[in-house]
């Protein structure tokens, strides 16, 4: 199975990064979104992503011009997917939107097209039937800033065909990712199965008054050699995401510590616009957070 033409559906935060990364590695990519206005906004991201590829990957102007020439844009789903070997879906993390999208896609995509979802929290088995081709459906999960944090977790559902899974693993490598196959469906894949409990434990230590932000991070950094602690990571992930994850857990369990965590994140951070690195302040102040100072670990 050799992929030549790729379609990326959804040109938001992750979709555009996936499209750009894929085109950078030599594939022709059609970017699909709900209308031309949104696609115009996606095109405008070309320059900022080019700057990041230059700074972080030493990309040359020629490589970036070639990347641009391999990207095309189309807001008509049937046209956008008409010759695609692989469609990567990065539409909003909302089951209703995803189901609606797959139902429409199933009607217009050629039989050969493999579908891959970038969903972070939903399992491929939740949509397999809607795709109309469950054996050609798999999850291909990227991380934000994919050119730097180049993990690609590949996860089938019980009905995914092995050659399809293997072809998506090979494709992930071809676009410069470290391909990480999962052999079973797992909510949160590998990365969030590890990360979410760590971040949750850190916020619970804080909320219970066991220790403070800097001491908790320092403990983790000195004890494991990690370059950043859980609160430093939370600032990168964004405090709104942490709030949403904790809110769902608090609503489901009514656990008092989880409820206190939600209140703390809202009152001390979200309501004050301290959303993490993106707003210049979260648990730390940016661009020079205290945990990067040379005496922090002393
Ligand atoms: P986003 O909200 O930034 O972008 C979603 C895009 O989808 C928008 O451009 C929107 O116009 C478009 N869209 C809406 N409805 C559509 C439809 N019916 N058909 C096609 N496009 C439609 O979202 P995002 O952060 O890029 O997330 C997209 C997916 O990627 C989600 O499944 C999310 O879980 C996953 N993901 C996100 C991150 C992250 O850090 N943001 C990381 C890994 C995976």
SSE inventory with pairings:
Blueprint: E1 5-9, H1 13-24, E2 28-32, H2 36-57, H3 61-70, E3 71-74, H4 77-80, E4 86-89, H5 95-108, E5 114-117, E6 137-142, E7 151-156, H6 162-174, E8 178-182, H7 191-207, H8 213-224, H9 230-237, H10 239-253, H11 256-270
Parallel strand pairs: 1-2, 1-4, 2-3, 4-5, 5-6, 7-8
Antiparallel strand pairs: 6-7
Helix pairs in contact: 7-9, 9-10, 10-11
Please count the helical segments: 11
> How far apart are the termini?
54 Å
Strand order of the largest sheet: 3-2-1-4-5-6-7-8
From the spread of the alpha carbons, the general shape counts as globular
CATH domain topology of the largest domain = Rossmann fold
Percent of residues in helices: 40-55%
Q: What Rg is obtained from the alpha carbons, in whole angstroms?
A: 20 Å
Q: Class of the largest domain, according to the CATH hierarchy?
A: Alpha Beta
For the report, how would you describe the main beta sheet?
A: 8 strands, mixed
CATH superfamily of the largest domain: NAD(P)-binding Rossmann-like Domain
Q: How many domains, as an integer?
A: 2
* Mean pLDDT figure: 96
What are the low-pLDDT stretches, counting only 5+ consecutive residues below 50? none
Give the helix/strand class: alpha/beta
